[in-house]
Amino acid sequence: MTVSSLLRVSVAVLCLAACAGGPQLSEDARLVRRVEGVVVSLARAYERKDAHALFDGVAPTLPGRESLRAAAEDAFARFDRIELALSIERVHLEGSAATVFVHWDGRWRRTGREPLARQGTARFVVAAGDDAQLIDVVGENPFGPVPDGVPRL
Predict the structure, then answer these.
(1) What are 99-133's pLDDT values in tens digits?
(2) Residue 32 Ramachandran class (φ > 0 left, ψ -120 to 50 alpha, else beta)
(3) What is the CATH number for 94?
(4) Residue 122 CA from chain centroid, whole number
(5) In this structure, which long-range contacts are made by residues 66-72, counting pairs with CB atoms below 8 Å and at least 24 apart in sequence?
(6) Which of 77, 124, 131, 132 is buried most, with the most CB atoms less than 10 Å from its CB?
(7) Domains in the chain: how many in total?
């Protein structure tokens, strides 16, 4: 091996070693990712019609928690399929809580019927600790009651 080849290999190895560690996330960045994960997992649980998983991510202190549970269980019973797309616009960290601004688009389907479509915007307030949970919803709650005018089973 020639000296120039050895030099090229050495430079390549040093470059790879320097890049291997990748960027380190700040504590705020890790917190934002954890909070976004909670919001996405709530939407996926709702789509799967999994009340247990949905309410594991909702704090017992959420205002109107029991009426929200009743509305979700009603939707799970009334519709064969639920699709809920969330778009997280931004996340604000505020001490021990994070406010997540979301836009959502939902479709509730029953076999043989036109789907019910709704969309809205909301602010999800999430406790930002290790056990991140939804503590409040301001605005149009995607997990809330399905509008009247849809026949019940």
Answers:
(1) 999 999 999 999 999 999 999 999 999 998 778 99
(2) alpha
(3) 3.10.450.50
(4) 12
(5) 68/141, 68/143, 68/144, 71/143, 71/144, 71/145, 71/146, 72/46, 72/143
(6) 124
(7) 1
